[in-house]
Amino acid sequence: MTLAIIYQHPRILLGMKKKGFGMGRWNGFGGKVKDEEDIETAMKRELQEEAGLIAGGFSERGIIEFRFTKRPEEVLEVHVFMVSDFTGDPKESEEMKPRWFFLDEIPFHEMWSDDPHWFPLFLKGIKFRGSFLFDDADLVLERDVKEVQSL
Ligand code: 95L
Questions:
Q1: 15-30 residue pLDDT tens
Q2: For the chain, domain boundaries
Q3: Could you tell me the pTM of the whole model?
Q4: CA torsion, points 3, 146, 114, 96, in degrees to nearest 10?
């Protein structure tokens, strides 16, 4: 999976997920990587589909493995990108309602519960590897986040 977060200091762009997995939370933009597609291509495609934006400059900042107690056999590997410029105006899609947030007003209480554990590194430009285990209420049961030199 890919996750793109637009960062134009002092604000970030998030999207309220309107349907499906993660509904009701402010998310980055992203989704599954298709067969024959590379990760960067998938990140750009999902950003276009979900927010109507064409990525300009970006860099991969983290890789996170997510596990859920209710699906012990599955691992979701998410590649997290910081997108520092783009063309287009954020537009609402079927999936997402985009909104800008100032860095000191990031709505962690309406986001996935892992986010507070890696956003500070992400925003400082520190590359990281993480893994999280969620319980049935999507709360973090176990976590590990480490700075890395390269992903
Ligand atoms: N901004 N953070 C996200 O968009 C985010 C955070 N954590 C997640 C954990 C599991 C998952 F399936 C998705 C996310 C997710 N989109």
A1: 999 999 999 999 999 9
A2: 2-147
A3: 0.97
A4: -10
